[in-house]
Specification:
Helix content: 55-70%
Strand order of the largest sheet: 1-4
Mean pLDDT: 77
Strand content: 5-15%
Oligomer: single chain
Order of helices and strands: HEEEHEHHH
Structural class: alpha+beta
Low-confidence stretches: none
Number of strands: 4
Distance between the termini: 118 Å
Number of domains: 3
Largest sheet: 2 strands, parallel
Radius of gyration: 42 Å
Number of helices: 5
Length: 155
């Protein structure tokens, strides 16, 4: 406790303490037994330590309060804190982060698109493309021959 008080004093932070509870304070906690539906109550002693709190407050330059007897002291602590608290509103530049996220999404989309377009080509699809091209070429050749025949018969 003395080390914490010395560190607070060195940093210029007075620590005010507030004593809540009693010397005979306890906490009852219902716990479940692992692997079972049974429960039991664990009682833990949590006595207040006014001497330790006073030592911390005195060593750091703060004030020790007892909630049961010094309720008006809480208002003084709150007023003192209000003078020490600083609220500062700062704007942050987020363009770089948003741009990086957009770039990641674009690259991911491009990679997935490439993957999907390649996965659709089964080995036979190249043969089918060649057959379609040959069929189109034959159709065009027949069309040209038909026109030649029509032009000869018209003359």
């Amino acid at each position: 406790m003395a080390q914490a008080a010395a560190a607070a004093r060195k940093a210029g932070v007075p620590v005010s303490t507030l004593l809540l509870g009693t010397a005979g304070g306890v906490v009852n906690q219902r716990l479940r037994v692992a692997g079972s539906s049974q429960t039991f109550v664990q009682t833990t002693q949590v006595p207040a330590e006014p001497a330790a709190l006073k030592q911390l407050a005195a060593g750091s330059g703060g004030v020790a309060f007892d909630a049961a007897t010094q309720a008006q002291g809480l208002a003084a602590v709150e007023a003192g804190l209000g003078q020490r608290l600083v609220h500062e509103r700062r704007l942050r530049e987020v363009t770089a982060g948003v741009t990086a996220a957009a770039l990641v999404l674009i690259l991911t989309g491009a990679a997935l698109s490439s993957f999907w377009s390649c996965s659709c080509q089964v080995p036979g699809s190249t043969i089918m493309s060649i057959r379609a091209w040959v069929g189109m070429r034959k159709w065009c050749w027949q069309l040209v021959q038909t026109r030649r025949f029509e032009s000869r018969s018209a003359s």
